[in-house]
Amino acid sequence: MSCRIYLVRHGETVWNAEFRFQGHSDVALSPRGVEQARALSRRLSEEEFCAFYSSDLQRAINTARIIAEPHGLPVESLEALREINFGFWEGLTMEEIQARYPRELEKWWHSPLHTRIPGGETLAEVVERVILAVRGILEKHPCGQVVVVCHGGTIRALVGSVLGMDLNQYWRLGVNNACLSILEFSTWERGILTLFNECSHLKKEGLI
């Protein structure tokens, strides 16, 4: 008996395309992001799912709704699945952050787990809330398939935790918009990553 979590990053937003940090800013999907979500929806249309969950930010919940539509199931949104809170960095590019917050950025880049972003979170706080949320999902669904739509940082934090990584290196996990990863859990302690950052549905339609 196991639960298989289909872990999805939301579709592209204008800020993604402009390489701006989003965090808790509630940025909508771009037209391209909507098409990416539809491509993944088509890919998963023949699968059987028992539930759909997402972050409560519109780029995630709207991606989840598009994927859930062929299955006729509602999407339950969870604030705990949000992206890391980038605080004063939200809306800025990496170059702009480097110019305005050089020392803070250098410290965060080397030790995100315990470095607080100005006005935002530490990665450790993200890990704590995301793990709590996913463990709650596993308790509700000890078997079957569940879709969880969230964010790049959230996915890195979760996958890195399951794999026992040094989470200060979590940025080494590449996560594309509307990509698919799969985690299987017989128990939380025995989580297995069976697919990561798979994008064939996007490549097929020229969306990556």
From TrEMBL:
Superkingdom to which the source organism belongs: Bacteria
Instruction: Answer yes or no on keyword Cell inner membrane.
Output: no
Pfam families on file:
His_Phos_1 (PF00300)
Q: Which residues form the active site?
A: H10, E83
An example of a Gene Ontology cellular component annotation for this protein is: cytoplasm
Query: What keywords appear on the UniProt entry?
Result: Glycolysis, Isomerase
InterPro entries of this UniProt entry?
Answer: 6Pfruct_kin, His_Pase_superF_clade-1, His_PPase_superfam, PG/BPGM_mutase_AS, PGM_Phosphatase, Ribazole_CobC
Any one Gene Ontology MF annotation carried by this entry is: alpha-ribazole phosphatase activity
Designated name of the protein: Alpha-ribazole phosphatase
Give the EC number.
3.1.3.73
